[in-house]
Every structure is written in C-alpha cells, then in structure tokens.
Amino acid sequence: MMSNADPKELAKFSELAHKWWDPESEFRPLHQINPMRLGWIEQQAGPLAGRQVVDVGCGGGILSEAMARQGAQVLGVDLADRSLKVAQLHAMEAGISQVQYRLVAAEALAAEQPARHDIVTCMEMLEHVPDPAAIVQACSDLVKPGGWVFFSTLNRNAKAFLFAIVGAEYLLKLLPAGTHEYAKFIKPSELLTWSRAARLEPVGTRGLEYNPLTRRYWLSDDLSVNYMIACRKPAAPAA
C-alpha cells in the first residue's frame, strides 16, 4: 500500500518538517492560502462542526487543524513521519483534541474505513505522487454517499511552469527550489476524468491567484495555475 509514494518527495518534506508552523518559512504560502481554502470548503459543503473529515496528505496539519477548530472531527494522514510528529505536537500544544494523525497510505485507509467520512480533502498532494488517479479513487472510497471530496493541485501549461516553478521557486523564492516537478502537474481535464471514473461528481472549481507586488492571494475563476475542485459522491438510492 505504500508503493504510491515517491521516496524523494517524502525525504524532501521530512527535511523541512520543523518549519511547517513557521508562517515566514517555505510554508508561508500554505499559511496565507489556508483561510481561503477553508472558506471555500465550508461554502461548498456547509458548516464543518460535527462532520467526520479525512485530510489526505496532511503534512504538518495546517488545514487539518483549521478544520478541527471549526468543530470537525479530523483525521490527518500522511506518509512523512516527521511532518506528522510536528502536526501532533502542534495540536497538543494548542489543546486541539478534535484532530488525530496517522502514518498510513490513503489506499490502505480506504480499505480499512470505506464510506465512513463526510468530507475528504486532498490539497497540494496529487502532484507529488506517482499515481494520482489511485489517490482520487481512495478519496472516493473513503467518503460516504452524499459526501464531499476536495482536491487542489497545479495545472500543467506554460503559465503554470512560469509562475509555480520559475517564479515561486527561483525568482520570488516562495518555495524551495525543486519543490515541484512540471511533468507531475495535472490538467483540470485529467483530474475531472479521474474523479468521474472514481464515481465522484465534480460540482465546483476555483482558481488561486497571487500578486507578487502586493504579496496577496485571492480566489478566482482562473484555473490556469493553482486550482481546486469540489466533488460529491452520489447519494445512495432509496431503499
């Protein structure tokens, strides 16, 4: 079950694990966009209070913890052990008991807990694994009929290469050089195809833009670089 992971990617994030909760570190962009991601999730799926949520590829727990603060019961899963330990420590220090973390592959968790969760999130993770379609399928398997699945990733085109790699990693140094591989970027059409094949119904998209002069992020209809997709699992037919 752990074969759908790139050891180089896991090592990369393990080396940076101690910086996850430093808002001025390499993870600054995630801290800045997190309120927008959280707001869009709630806009689509409704209030999180009392909902069972799985955050696939949770890293240091930035989104996981934010959803728990909104009242969700959150399970964050990842294969980077050092990142998970940072996430666990931060939640403990913050006194947040509604979030738990596990070192487990999404596919393994889906086999263990099928159709058990109200919401599944998988943010900025698909472009880091060898088989992203398998992760999409696992997310679908984890969610209940009628539940929600949210993905975010990077488009694959010249603009995305210029903005997400040349600009963000080398010119503006918002991210460490080598964070992303252009060949692993995912076109929205590809992600939509995988979602439908996994019996998910795409119901909304949102783009994320950045102005390097004002250092401000905002949501838009432009999916050309960073984008999010909201999907629903069809409700079970009435008995």
UniProtKB/TrEMBL annotation:
O-methyltransferase that catalyzes the 2 O-methylation steps in the ubiquinone biosynthetic pathway. It is an enzyme of class 2 (transferase). It comes from the Bacteria. The keyword Methyltransferase applies. Pathway: Cofactor biosynthesis; ubiquinone biosynthesis. It catalyses: a 3-demethylubiquinol + S-adenosyl-L-methionine = a ubiquinol + S-adenosyl-L-homocysteine + H(+); a 3-(all-trans-polyprenyl)benzene-1,2-diol + S-adenosyl-L-methionine = a 2-methoxy-6-(all-trans-polyprenyl)phenol + S-adenosyl-L-homocysteine + H(+). PANTHER family: METHYLTRANSFERASE (PTHR43464), UBIQUINONE BIOSYNTHESIS O-METHYLTRANSFERASE, MITOCHONDRIAL (PTHR43464:SF19). Keywords: Methyltransferase, S-adenosyl-L-methionine, Transferase, Ubiquinone, Ubiquinone biosynthesis. One of its GO terms (molecular function) is 2-polyprenyl-6-hydroxyphenol methylase activity. Belongs to the methyltransferase superfamily. UbiG/COQ3 family. S-adenosyl-L-methionine binds at residues 37, 57, 78, 123. The lineage of its organism: Bacteria, Pseudomonadati, Pseudomonadota, Betaproteobacteria, Burkholderiales. Gene3D superfamilies: Vaccinia Virus protein VP39 (3.40.50.150). Its EC number is 2.1.1.222, 2.1.1.64. The gene is ubiG. This is Ubiquinone biosynthesis O-methyltransferase. GO terms for biological process: methylation.
